[in-house]
Design goal:
This protein has about 180 residues and is α+β, with helices and mostly antiparallel strands. The protein has helices spanning about 1-20, 80-85, 170-180; strands at about 55, 60, 70-75, 90-95, 105, 110, 115-120, 125-135, 145-155. The chain has a domain at about 55-180: Immunoglobulin-like. The longest helix has 20 residues, at about 1-20. Keywords: Signal.
């Protein structure tokens, strides 16, 4: 019995030494198993600029008569109270040139003794475009800008690119490039 007990102790000691002295790096790696069945494709995420709204260019609708001021309205359901409360709202005017290069400026702008600006009326989903003579007495036909466009950048849109720049200080091209929008 004593002999069996000593044999068992010795066997246990040998097994313990073998298991302690072995490590995964000591042996050869087994062969790579075969590739498993491909899983189902996941749903695509939304683009980083998914919440940014850019209107198409639209023609100006100022009256074609000389006056000290003129105005027109544009209705768009994207112009709502949330936009008025918290979104960055940028408006651009486009002037066509003879050389084929369009000049695009951000409103409000004063140009050739004329000021162009806008107001939002979110209750009725409207943007109100207004032009005035700087001195309020000289009459003009307000046709400096042939088209207008607006861009809405919601405040909850961190743009996925860290802290957002001051879009109002960026050129039209910089804003379009930043969000990957068409000119």
């Amino acid at each position: 019995m004593k002999r069996t007990f000593n044999f068992m102790k010795l066997a246990f000691l040998v097994i313990a030494l073998i298991s302690i002295s072995c490590s995964p790096e000591d042996g050869r790696d087994g062969e790579q198993g075969s590739q498993g069945v491909a899983g189902q494709d996941g749903q695509d995420g939304t683009d980083g600029n998914a919440n940014v709204v850019a209107s198409p260019w639209f023609d100006e609708e100022f009256p074609n008569t000389a006056s000290t001021s003129a105005s027109f309205n544009r209705t768009d359901t994207a112009i709502d109270q949330d936009v008025a409360n918290a979104a960055a709202f940028l408006v651009y005017g486009k002037r066509f040139t003879l050389g084929g290069t369009d000049i695009i400026v951000q409103l409000p702008v004063t140009d050739d003794e004329r000021t162009y600006f806008y107001e939002l009326f979110p209750q009725t989903n409207r943007i109100f475009f207004r032009a005035e003579s700087v001195d309020k007495t000289t009459q003009f036909i307000f046709d400096d800008y042939a088209q207008f466009r607006f861009v809405i950048i919601p405040s909850n849109n961190s743009t996925g690119k860290g802290s957002s720049p001051d879009f109002s200080k960026m050129s039209y091209e910089e804003v379009m490039d930043y969000f990957g929008l068409t000119y």
